[in-house]
Structures are given as C-alpha cells and as structure tokens.
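Example record for the data management plan.
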Amino acid sequence: MIAPSTFFLKPHPPVITFYEERNFQGRSYECMSDCSDMSSYMSRCQSCRVESGCFMVYERNNYMGQQFFMRRGEYNDMQSMRSMGMMFDNIRSCRMIPYHRGQFRMKIYERENFGGQSYELMDDCDNIQDRYRMSDCQSCNVMDGHWLMYEQPQYRGRMMYMRPGEYRSFREMMSGQRFMSMRRITDMC
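Corresponding structural encoding:
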C-alpha cells in the first residue's frame, strides 16, 4: 500500500541565480525569496537561471519600473530575454511568486476606484475588448490567485504582476498604463 502523502509532490523551493556576465559567467547571486536591491550583490545582471519557481524581475530597485515574468529555464543573455518581451536591459530587484492552489478570481473595472462596468474573471482573458466590450481597465480587485496583466491584447507588451489585493488606480501605479489582457499564473514553475 502506498502512503497517502506520496500522491502529493511538494514543489521545489524557488531558486533563481543571477550572473554579471552573459552565458552564466562572472559573479553570481542565488536568490530564494524577494530581493529589493541587488546592487549590493552584483553591479549588473546579464544572464540568469531559474532552477525552480516563478519570479518577477524589475528594472529598478524596490520592485519599481518595468517588470518581466520568469519561469523555470535558462536566460543566457539580455538579448534573448528582450526577444521574449523583456523591455529593459538590467535587473535590479526580483520578487518570488508563491505557488497558488485553488481557484483564481479577479474583478476588473473600467474606471479608477472600482468604477464603471465590471466583470469577474476566473480564467485567462486574451482581450477584454472582444470578450466584454470593455475599452479600458483602470482598477481591479484580486481575490484569489496571482495574475499577470498585459498592456496589449494576446498577452503582449508591458506586464504587471498582481497578487491578492485591491488596486484602485493603474494610472497612478504605472504612469498611465492600461491593461487589455490578463493571465493566471498557474504553473508550479
């Protein structure tokens, strides 16, 4: 008889390693949680390897500026990361995305401060204009799960990581950025 605990595999602890040079060369910094300022560990980041887990990386300290989602894999230079949609050339901070089990729920609003028409999402939406006839999304309430929001339809353009909480104004958070598609972070990465 197999013990019940063997049916559920625990995810590996999240690990991302940053390197100062391309192709995983030079000084490195291994990170297993959030890091608000990588400058004390290395002067720049030109490649990285995600051993397990998912991370958001940011162009500035303290989780500011543009963001890029990284899942398990090797990113051998900034040029390859740019070809995958990363819109900046140096990583300054990173945030570990916890694995979420259970349902995903987010309510999106047409206007700031939860105003205008609203819709509740429980799955990915590749285009809010086509699905809901909603021309803009300016605020949201993430009730369950972790989400990525994109400025263009079909999960393209700049992105933003949303964890559970209320987001009253995207204009204030991201200097006027609007979001047109949303995706759940469902991987165990």
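Summary line stored alongside the record: The chain has three helices and 14 strands.
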